Amino acid sequence: MKVAVSALLFLLPSIASAADGSGQQFSFMASFLQMIAALALVVGLILVTWHFSGKLMKGLPVGHQMLSKHIRLIETRYLGPKRALMLVEVSGEYLLLSSSETGLAFIKQIDMLEEIEVIEEKPDQSSFSTLLARLRQTS
């Protein structure tokens, strides 16, 4: 921000001479500097507005942030275009929901300790790190 203000102050004399409409010959450099100064001013105003709007909006509750204490999305598995399964925790209870084009549907309530089986995924045999490990073992 300080750079933009200092650049604007530095370019002020050339802006004034470019704005002088006395009918003298056209100065490309003065017009270019005027354009750069205007751009710096606009970008500076955008940054100042962004900074203060972020500070003002920080204290306001926003949609999902109000519910974040009680509702939490655990996992989403996409089954196809516009179709997914979602595991959601609501006040300590786990719910399995389906999402489709028509909306959300409740499937079942899950007891996390008894019903979910953890399956370890095998590493991809064709990955680059696996190929490097094989090359190190053979040499």
Structure description:
The chain is α+β, with helices and mostly antiparallel strands and 139 residues long. It has two domains: 2-58; 64-115, no CATH class. It is 50% helix and 24% strand. It has five helices and four strands, in the order αααββββαα. The chain has helices spanning 2-19, 28-58, 63-67, 112-115, 128-138; strands at residues 71-80, 83-90, 93-100, 103-110. The chain has a four-stranded antiparallel beta sheet. The chain is extended, with a radius of gyration of 30 Å. The two termini are 57 Å apart. The mean pLDDT is 76.
Short description:
This protein is of the alpha+beta class and 139 residues long. The chain has helices at residues 2-19, 28-58, 63-67, 112-115, 128-138, and strands spanning 71-80, 83-90, 93-100, 103-110.
Strand content: 15-25%
In N-to-C order, the SSE pattern is HHHEEEEHH
Strands of the largest sheet, in order across it?
Answer: 1-2-3-4
Largest β-sheet summary: 4 strands, antiparallel
- Which stretches are low in confidence, meaning pLDDT under 50 for 5 or more residues running? none
Give the class from helix and strand content and strand pairing: alpha+beta
Overall shape: extended
